[in-house]
Amino acid sequence: MGDVISSHLDEGKREMITGRTRVVLEEFGRVYEKQYGVALFNDVRFEIEGGGGTQTQLLHRKDPLRDKCIFSGSLYKYLEENKKWRHRFLYVDDTYNIALFENKQGHERGLHPKEIINCAGYRALDSMEEYLELLSTSLPGVKAKASSSPFLKYPSEYPLILWHPYARHHYFCVMTEKEHTKWHAVLQDCVRHANNGLSEESTVQTPAFTDALRLYRQSKGHYGTWDMMCGEPAQILANLVMETLHPDLRTVIGPRLKGKLQQRQRNWMLISDAVYKQVLSQTRAQHEAMVQVCESQRPRLDAALRTDMDQIITSKEHVTGKIRSLVWPRAEQLLRGSVQPYISSILEALMEPTSRGFAEVRDVFFRELVEVSKNTLNKGGKDKLAEHMEKLSMLAFHPVKMRSCYEKVEQLSLDGLQQRFDFSSPSVFIHRAQILMRQEMDNAVYTFEQLFHQALGSQEGDDLCKAIQGCQDRVLKKYDYDSSSVRKKFFREALLQIIIPYMLKQLAPSFANDLPRFQELIFADFSRFILVENVFEEVVLQSVTKDIMMAVKEAAVQRRHNLYRDSIIMTNSDPNLHLLGENPVDWSQEYGGEEDDQDGSSVMIRDAGQGGSGRKRRQVVSMIQLDGMPLPYESCMEVPGVEGIPEENEAMMEDVESESPDVPSSPTTTTTTAASGLMEATMPFCEPEPDSPDSIQEIRTLINPVVEMVGSVENTEEPEEPVLSNGVESLEEVEEEKEEEEEEEEESVATTTAEEDAKEAVVSGQEQEEEQEVQTPAASSQESEVAAASQVMQETQEDQDAELPAEIDAAAVAVDSDSNSSPRHDDSGFQSPTNEALEEEEEQREKEESLSVGEVVKASAIDPKEVVLEVGQQQVPEASPSEALQNGEHTTDVLL
Questions:
Q1: Given CB 3.0 to 4.6 Å as the disulfide criterion, which of 374, 587, 671, 812 pairs with 389?
Q2: Are 170 and 2 in contact (CB under 8 A)?
């Protein structure tokens, strides 16, 4: 990079650049010194005579961004030094300068930023097509195709570019569309603020500089608005020098550049940036010297003005009359033929998009107040009031929420009139209208804060919604009046900025030889305060002002675009309102809003600064936290209340909650599950050991197990996997052991035959039970069906007695005797062998404990095709009686 600059910018060219800059600044300095005296005269005269415009209805906040930062976050930035993309932490403070740090910790520790970008003169682009179109004009005779990429490749499809006609371009990149939208809005806001023009606080230096710049460019043949009149005075002067220097250097250096198109574009951009830095350093130093010289003469000039003010005013009026009599006939002819027919067209082209933008400001403000009412009503009343009011307080400076308003004005187009009146572009008017919209939004918000705070102090009860509604109606009425006044003033100024340069360009050649003789009519002592060229412009201005005022007044009388007539004056509607604006409201301190910052809706950024004060600033635009992003990528990630407009991090939390399971698992449960899964994986063949019984009831449950069995008569499918019950071995494990012992095929055939016989017996038993249900009540029908199932089990048991060991038969008889110890007996005629003495002994005990025992059979309607046996809470899949006997299990009767 250094080789390219040094090879094309040798010592000779650098001296030439310095000389050209010195010549421009010397010429401008002479004009500035003259205009400084005129500006001082106008300032002192206004101070003595007084005057003022219409009183506004809305309050104005003096320092709205105090202790605030606009935005901060991390993204990718392309570094020219090593030609690589690197993460950088960007911090946008209340001056709208972009400070770049290596990471967020470097900013919080108060380290000096790696780079500071002043966005004056830049344009924020969000597509490569638009950038390549602008880049194609950088070199003569070289056109870049939209499909061809420049000298760098973006790591994602979301580029962000800061383009400048002379300075270095800055390339950024983000990974998501949400980040792209938000960062683009922030960069546009930085450019909009930097291009807003000079500060109006200096009532002498600013008018002197702007008038001197306009007269200097008119002397060079450049009339009308200038897109590069943006930034600080030193930056404007650097742009003034580059306006003529840049084309000459491009003609000399451009043909000497070698390489492909992308490489030549890159090299030329680096050379242009080096030249611009050199010019800027020189203009900054000479402008400071120029201002110091004029300021040193101010006390003497001020004293002379105050002493001879009357004589100076009389002398100026005399000269003005002479020039008016000379200029007005020619000016009136030009006005009637070439200007007046187009005033209404220009006004309509300005009014429509501008009025839509101000109407959108009103709608956004109204929607925000509706959201505040809803959130206050649903989320805790005054407890959450500070959080919502803090969001509302910075609404005007939230670039994402205000974006819809700005986009309305960007539709302003003066294509047909632009060529006729010879002005560069409507961007000057667009930026000015957007700044006015932001000011009116902040005035409306600030006025609402003061009225609402006053209402809370005098309100009885907690009806916050009613108080919000009342203050809202009052503020909207005031906003309608002020927005009408602001728009009418904007339309008049825009018409003058379009028409006056055109008329001056047409009239100046005709009176160039006549004007110098009027300088003789001015006394030498007053020549510093009265200049003929200024008087000539004032005369031309007066000739067209009447027609412009009439056009705007006619639009207001017709109520077009919601403009108010000048006769409608809202005076003293709230006589004590302006007294409220002297004390801004600190909502977080009065209503405990600091506690609400934990939900991420309000972001606090530590602004250590170079002094290391460590003061925290509330961030206007909140962050987006993206899922899956690594921690070092502290992206601009939120917003977002335009939705306070709801913030984007709240919607993401709702998505996470919807995807999470209904019952959250505790860490203990997770650990236990993981441990049990590991044991099952390492010991798949280990059989679980039954737990030891801890109470009499558990012992009784082991002795007298009750099983729920659903056996379908028509179902011939094999049983599903059994479930463990009461700590005994599962049926599947016993069956596997038996199958290993049974090696002869004849035994399996015999078992299958026994199952078919059992099913046939169940069918016949159900037919008999259906006949009995007609004669017996519902309870008896249920008992009969259960008895039929028991009958089938008994018959199957008798068929298989020869094959079963004596121990199994004895165990089955013993358990059947325990299960028949219930006080209720089956009337079906089937009774298992019982121990009568044991039955009598246990009868009383079972009655006392029957209510506490959870093993009670539920008497429910049974499908004719199914027999249900239920005890306790666990179920055993269906299995035939023959399988149960073969597996070594005993059958159990039903407890009724």
A1: 587
A2: no
Altogether, the residues listed in the chain come to a count of 896
Please name the helix (run of DSSP H) or strand (run of DSSP E) that holds residue 613, with its range, or none. none
pLDDT of residue 142 exceeding 70: no
Round to the nearest angstrom and report the end-to-end CA distance of the chain: 97
Q: What separation in angstroms does the CA of 743 have from each of 736, 746, 749, 884, 885?
A: 12, 9, 12, 19, 18
Distance CA 225, CA 218 (A): 11
Q: Strands 115-117 and 98-101, how do they pair?
A: antiparallel
Q: What angle do CA 821, 824, 830 make, to 5 degrees?
A: 75
Residue 886 to residues 628, 797, 891, Cα–Cα distance (Å):
58, 10, 11
Cα separation of 175 and 635, whole Å?
A: 9
**DSSP code for 893:** P
The C-alpha atoms of residue 253 and residue 255 are separated, in whole angstroms, by 6
> Which two structure tokens, joined as six digits, stand for 772?
């009995």
> What is the CA angle 161-163-166, rounded to 5?
150
Helices (H), 459-531: 464-511
Six token digits for residue 880: 């035939």
Q: In what order do the strands lie in the sheet with 866-869?
A: 866-869, 708-712, 875-876
Q: Kindly report the pTM of this predicted structure.
A: 0.68
CA angle in degrees (0–180, nearest 5) for 806-811-812 = 100
Alpha-carbon torsion 416, 419, 423, 424, what sign? positive
For residues 347 and 327, what is the distance between their CA atoms, to the nearest angstrom?
26
**Which pLDDT tens digit goes with each residue over 830-846?**
344 444 444 555 666 66
Tokens standing for residue 383: 């407890």
Question: What are the residues whose beta carbons fall under 8 Å from the beta carbon of 893, sequence distance 6 or more?
Answer: 790, 816, 819, 820, 826, 832
The string of DSSP letters for 332-389 reads HHHIIIIIHHHHHHHHHHHHHHHHHHHHHHHHHHHHHHHHHHHHHHHTTGGGGHHHHH
Of 64-73, 117-126, 496-505, minimum mean pLDDT range: 64-73
User: How far apart, in whole angstroms, are the C-alpha atoms of residue 620 and residue 608?
Assistant: 18
Q: Rounded to an integer, what distance in angstroms lies between the CA atom of residue 188 and that of residue 183?
A: 8
Q: Which pLDDT tens digit goes with each residue over 608-661?
A: 554 444 555 667 665 544 434 443 344 443 333 333 334 444 444 444 444 444
Q: Among all chains, which residue has been given the structure tokens 């880049």?
A: 135
Residue with tokens 């005797």: 817
Q: Record the tokens describing residue 728, joined without a space.
A: 């005994």
